[in-house]
Amino acid sequence: TYGGGMYLLSSSPTFTNVTFSGNSATYGGGIFFLFNIHSGLDGSSPTLTNSILWGNSPEEIYFWEFDSASHSITISYSDIQGGEAGIVANDGTVYWEDGNIDADPLFCDAENGDLTIQSDSPLLGAGQDGANIGALGVGCEEPLSIVDNIIPNTYTLSSYPNPFNPTTTITFTIPEFGHTTIIAYDITGRQLETLTNEVLNMGNYSIDWNASSYPSGVYLIRMGSGDFTQTLNVVLVK
């Protein structure tokens, strides 16, 4: 078998913020390159930016060694297991550009398909222009606590302490059954972490947010439940 994650046949796609993980094949567990001599086309020359190739077997990228075509890959700001040595290039060309790393991405639960990353992952802010590397942001949701059994009649959202360092407790109430999200953003609106994303009964809840991996500043906590949305400013002071 060829190309557990991606099989390229005379094609040159651009991959940005993509995660390849947990794939396997005889050749190229992550990405496999092949040239079709009958197509009249050239080899494959994809570009990979802000992406992850980790935990694929037996190798992350494989160039088919019997091709007469010229293959290449351009990689920047990406996390490649084994680094450049994790690529079996044969006669192909690897353009290993700025920002690449070889570091455990700290997936939340890769064995069960959760490829979100932990809050102390080396991929946070390591991408081009300070973006995260990979397709998914921070996950590993903290346990959600039910504060009491009193049924509320309004939506509320608050945090204490605020300002905080480095953990604040976010409390919220929902007066009706429904899908509820609590998401943390930086001041520019870039999504940082999903704290809650589940269907909840009406009630009063709390969840802790540990922002130890982020710099001092103002952050936004956005709650969405049914048609209701509210945004709360919280201040991290280190």
TrEMBL record:
<protein>
    <recommendedName>
        <fullName>Secretion system C-terminal sorting domain-containing protein</fullName>
    </recommendedName>
</protein>
<dbReference type="InterPro" id="IPR026444">
    <property type="entry name" value="Secre_tail"/>
</dbReference>
<dbReference type="InterPro" id="IPR011050">
    <property type="entry name" value="Pectin_lyase_fold/virulence"/>
</dbReference>
<feature type="domain" description="Secretion system C-terminal sorting">
    <location>
        <begin position="160"/>
        <end position="230"/>
    </location>
</feature>
<dbReference type="Pfam" id="PF18962">
    <property type="entry name" value="Por_Secre_tail"/>
</dbReference>
